Amino acid sequence: MYVPSFADADGDGIGDLRGAAGRLAHVAELGADAVWLTPFYPSPWADGGYDVADHRDVDPRHGTLDDFRAFVGRAHGLGLKVVVDIVPNHCSDRHPWFAEALAAPPGSAARDRFVFREGKGPDGCEPPADWQSKFGGSAWTRVPDGQWYLHIFAAEQPDLNWENPEVAADFERTLRFWLDLGADGFRVDVAHGLRKDLAPPLRDTRGADAAPLNSPPEGDDHPFWDRDEVHEIYRAWRKVIDSYDPPRIAVAEAGVSAARLPLYTRPDELHQAFNFFHLRCPWDAAAFRDVIGTSLDSARSVGCLPTWVLSNHDVVRHRTRYGLPDGTDAAGWPPVAGGGPEPDDTKGRRRARAAALLTLALPGTTYLYQGEELGLVEVSGLPPEALRDPIWERSGRTRKGRDGCRVPLPWSRGGTSYGFGPGGSWLPQPEGWGEFSAEAQRGRDGSFLELYRAALRLRRAFRGDETFRSLAGAAGELAFRKGAGLECRVNFSARPVPLPALPVLLASDGLTADGMLAPDTAVWLDARD
Q1: CA-CA distance, 364 to 283, in Å (whole number)?
Q2: Residue 14 DSSP symbol
Q3: Are β-strands 249-252 and 116-117 bridged in parallel, bridged antiparallel, or unpaired?
Q4: Are strands 468-471 and 365-367 parallel, antiparallel or unpaired?
């Protein structure tokens, strides 16, 4: 759940915890096991809530601590676990600690909670190193007394200094605070970025981190991404999490190489790590076969299973992504100046449905992004004055950013915000948005919503045996079997392919008239003895 865009109870156009609680029945009926809430903490909203001013409270626009308690109670009553987002790499520049740091002199204890350094060049007028912000521009901002502070993201998000014991102790208090309120676990934002090589003189990166959440090349000793020291933090966190009963979990958002990802899920660290390789995989049988095999081998090397994800609040929605011409840079789509390729929605729709069955058949845990069960498309026509993502301004208005996948959900065919809330919506919803709504799709044969419901019901029937076996298939076909009985086949080719003589459990779209698997279609077969 991207909280600002899930459901709004108070009519201010921004999603809140009461609104989300009121829509939890949809999630439970869908067949989910848990919900992950993006940040709902006090925030000036320089980065959609990921600039946190107080890690142990609720932003008034999202509700109160009592609303959080009520949300957890409602979720638990429906059999849903609750995972909350924790943002340990940085805080807001409105956090009391940062205000104290700005008021304190260089070298003070208050500044040591952050990364302040003297600049280079005449009078220290140049940044301490060439480190770049993931949102564009320098990762350093100068303060009036001449020092510079580090912010790997927006200038309003100063990085915390994880070499400072006070920072570590405060986040352990934060973990316990939310666990004591009933949270069942954490999603750890930028899990690979907390520790930096801060030994003087700071090392330049020479452009090695130019892409957002880029993982350093294999074997590269990067000054702030994926450093070995970060694992000390998660070993300490695991002790906190393991002290609770029933068991709680944590999942890492770590943009690192396949070889390094298992380090975050060793038995004494975090429980899961997001698998961005699956999300970024092009629509190709061989590419998916390689990503799936590598992901399984990587996770099993430390005794766990992979996670799988197709969309989230940071990327172009996969229905649109799969409809773009091969080779399109989805991260830069749509181009600000216009003239970019238009997605083929017929193709994107078929591929998105096939990808859902492919993903939900795999061993491990699948994370679904709100609205993908409705088949939502990326909203590409947002006017410049509506854009809120800091990427827009920090890139010099050359990249539109992530707002297109964050447009508030449609719940009904009509109304001022298609059922999102009693008022408007903080990002404009496009005309006809209501035809994607849960109301429009519920009970409708062939809808995305009913496909996801059917898939999740069947998935439960095949739980328990998480073994995986790749099967031979036709050219351009991906075939595998999970456990003893769920067989999945996906046709990536341009021609229909024959199916084995097994009962069909579910298909992403209709088979051909002679019972063959059509292009861009997936099928689940019952291979149980």
Answers
A1: 21
A2: S
A3: unpaired
A4: unpaired
- Crossing angle (nearest 10°) for helices 165-180 and 230-242: 30
Query: Which structure tokens are listed for 516?
Result: 């063959």
| DSSP-derived 3-state class of residue 171 | helix
- Contact, 418 vs 434, CB < 8 A? yes
- Sign of torsion over alpha carbons 138, 143, 146, 148: negative
The pLDDT tens digits for 25-65 are: 999 999 999 999 999 999 999 999 999 999 999 999 999 99
The residue among 445, 420, 452 whose CA lies nearest residue 434 is 420
The answer to whether the CB of 218 falls within 8 A of the CB of 259 is yes
- Picking from 360, 274, 371, the residue whose alpha carbon sits closest to that of residue 318 is 371
Tokens of 231: 């694992």
Cβ atoms of 362 and 490 within 8 Å: the answer is: no
Rounded Cα distance between 136 and 128, Å, is: 17
What's the CA gap between 44 and 92, in Å, rounded?
Answer: 8
The predicted structure's pLDDT at residue 217:
56
The token duo for 172 is 């352990």
Question: What is the block-wise mean pLDDT of the chain (529 residues), using blocks of 10 residues?
Answer: 98 98 98 98 96 98 98 98 98 98 98 98 95 91 98 96 98 98 98 96 77 52 92 98 95 93 97 95 97 96 96 96 91 80 96 98 98 97 91 87 96 96 97 97 97 97 93 96 96 97 97 97 96
Model confidence pLDDT, tens digit, residues 173-203:
999 999 999 999 999 999 999 999 999 999 9
CA distance linking residue 503 with residue 521, whole number of Å? 16
Q: Which two tokens stand for residue 230?
A: 């970060």
Q: What gap in Å lies between CA 71 and CA 77, rounded to an integer?
A: 10
Instruction: Say if residues 345 and 280 touch (Cβ distance below 8 Å).
Output: no
DSSP assignment, residue 511?
P
